[in-house]
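Possible regression after last week's pipeline update?

I re-ran a chain I had predicted before the update to compare outputs. Posting the input and the new output here so someone can diff against the archived version. Not blocking, just want to make sure nothing changed silently.
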Amino acid sequence: MGVLGVHPAIAALHFDTSMAPSWRSRSAGIMLLVASHSKGSTLEPAPFAPATGVEFREYIAVLRNRKWSIAVVATLVLGATLAFSIRQTPLYESKTKVLIEALQIRGGGAAGDITTNMDTESQVVGSSSVAELVAGDLGVQEPIEHLLEPLKVEVVPNTEVLTISYRDPNPEEARRRANAFARAYLEFRRERLLREVTAGIERLRAQVQDLTVRLEHTIEQIGNEADPVVRMQLRARVNTLAAQIGLLQQQIQDVEPDASLLVGQIILPASLPQSPVVPNYPMNITLALFAGLALGIGLAFLRERLDERLRGTDDLEAHTHAPVLAVVPKLSGWRKREEDMLVTVSDTDSQAAEAYRTLRVAVLFAAANRGMKSFLVTSSRPDEGKTMTTANLGVALAQAGKRVVVVSADRRRPRLHRFFGCPNGIGLTNVLAGEADLRSALHQPGINNLRVLSSGAWIGNYDAIFGSDPMVRLLSELREYADLVLIDAGPVLGVADTVSLAPLVDGVLVVANADRATRRSVRQAMQQLEKVDATVVGCVLNNYDVHDVSYEYPGKHVRRNLFALVRRAKSGPLTIPHEPEESRTPSGDQLGEDRDGVVSRSPRNPS
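New output (post-update):
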């Protein structure tokens, strides 16, 4: 499939609602620009390269397009969070702080402290032993696990202070239990230390008892011994044992605790909480908003990924690898699809009419610089606006002084004749079957320089006729009669007629409806045209909603590619032909002469 290398020239001509000058002045300026660069210069062609990759503005477009779905998801998450928060039982939290005192001891005349592991102590506070003391203190009858569940113990960094927190639906109960855990912990710690010290003293006393027995036995040996040397040795042993016993007794006296043993103290008693900490509305709302927005944005991009609809000119170009020649806006006054509108006649100052005139410049550019005269207008699927495009483009070309023939070749849904109010009794099928000649089948719709060849009655071997020699001869005859021939063909997908006609014409225009066309359908259509080596001139994005932020604004596309018109034109001098008026007067073999009263003379030609 050949893609005509005029893309940048034509892409620069998309309509732009923000441009104040009239179409005629802008068209004239473009023509002068082309003409000024065509004198004595040959411009090298540049291959069409659609934009690839995801740009930041595309992310913004997705967010704008899906803003309501994102808002709905975020609102649902926020509402669910608020409902959950409202249903939560209010909980009050009371805190108390406990300072842990190191146990000081003296042994053998030397002082020392028993070191404290704060992480261990925090675990002790939450132990079942302490909880049992709390239950006894408060006189509550509930499982220990249930009593410990609302408890929270934290170590203040770089200190020997524990923060004991307790939550309860009753603020007074939260304070009572927080203080109770602090008291129970200090009591448990004191009892534990007393048990450890007492066990140590008992060990020392056992050693003293053992040494005392040995001392008494040694004294008894001295009284029974006659040898002075041995008696001297026994007396030395007695002195040693007595010294050891005295040392142990001194240690017992030093470490034995008294009733005022200090293991810690409550430095901040628990206070009565004034407001609940659960539910935490500010935190819940903040987290819900972040979670809702994250979920909504994720779903938005997922839907965008799964959505096959086209997203404007860049997206259409990327999936067709063909330039977008014009963007036709959605017609605000066209409510019913069965109604046929010629905006180039009924509303010449509308954006849609200007878009068709933009497409006219593209076709004239291709005709002048590539020698193209016959164009097939098609789409990937039905109801994408190809017939309306054919009709309005034909009128726009005729208004520019070109002799135009529009041909209805969509046999399944022929509608072209309805745009011009022409009958459909005799038309293309009759000419191909040899039942009528071309001049008798052409209709004058009352528009200067324009003739209509309707589809005619359906015949059984229509498919075979479309690719036959009579069709080739008819196209050749039409090229001789008219400056330009526009053929309204059926959709590419599912219809063999268009694929048969595509290689017989000079160029193909593909129409894509911004609301109905999908990326997959346009890709498949281009693949079908590629198989028959059709020359695709470009695409037309139809039914574009200028208020839809899911598409990129085509005006930006215009400004980006305006001067690419000259820079990327097809090789060869660019020429804009200006025929003398007398040379454009049709001869007897051209359209416009009233022969046998079948076709009336065009109003623009002299009698």
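Follow-up from reviewer: compared with the archived run. The domain at 89-278 is CATH 3.30.1890 (Bacterial polysaccharide co-polymerase-like). Marking as no regression found.
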